[in-house]
Amino acid sequence: MAVGPEPLKARPAGAGRVAAGALALAAIGLLVGGAFAGLAFEALGAWQGALSAFDSYLLRVARFTLWQAALSTLLSVGPALLVARALARHPRFFGRGLILQLFALPLALPAIVAALGVLALYGRAGYFAPLFSALAGERWPGIYGLSGILVAHMFFNLPLAARLFLAALENVPADQWRLSAQLGMGAVSSFRFIEWPVLRNALPGVAGLVFMLCATSFTIVLTLGGGPGATTLEVAIYQALRFDFDPARAIALTLAQVALTGLVVAMLARLGAAMTGDASLPVAPRRALFPGRVERGFNAAVILLSLAFVAGPMAATVAAGLRADLARLAGEGAVIAATATSLVLSALAALLCLLLSLSLVMARRALELRRRAAAPGLLERLSDTGAMMVLIVPPIVIGAGWFILLRHVGDVFAFAPAMVVTVNAVMAMPFAIRAIRPAHDAASARHEKLCLSLGIAGWNRLRLVDWPALRRPAATALAFAMALSLGDLGVIALFGSDRVQTLPFLLLQRMGSYRTADAAGIALFLGVLCLALMFAAGRWGREKP
Amino acid sequence: MRWISASLMGVVWLFAASAAQARETLTIYTYESFTAEWGPGPAVKKTFEEHCRCELKFVAVADGVALLNRLRLEGAETDADIVLGLDTNLIHEAKETGLFAPHGIDPGKVKVPGGFSDDVFVPYDYGYFAFVYDTQALEAPPQSLKALVEADSALKIAIQDPRTSTPGLGLLLWMKAVFGEEAADAWAKLGDKVLTVTPGWSESYGLFTNGEVPMVLSYTTSPAYHRIVEGTERYRAAAFAEGHYLQVEVAAKTVKGADNPLAETFLAFMIGPGFQDVIPETNWMFPAGETSQPLDPVFETLVTPAETLIFPPEVVAENRKAWVEEWLSVLSR
Question: Cα(B257)–Cα(B253) distance, rounded to whole angstroms?
Answer without folding.
Answer: 5
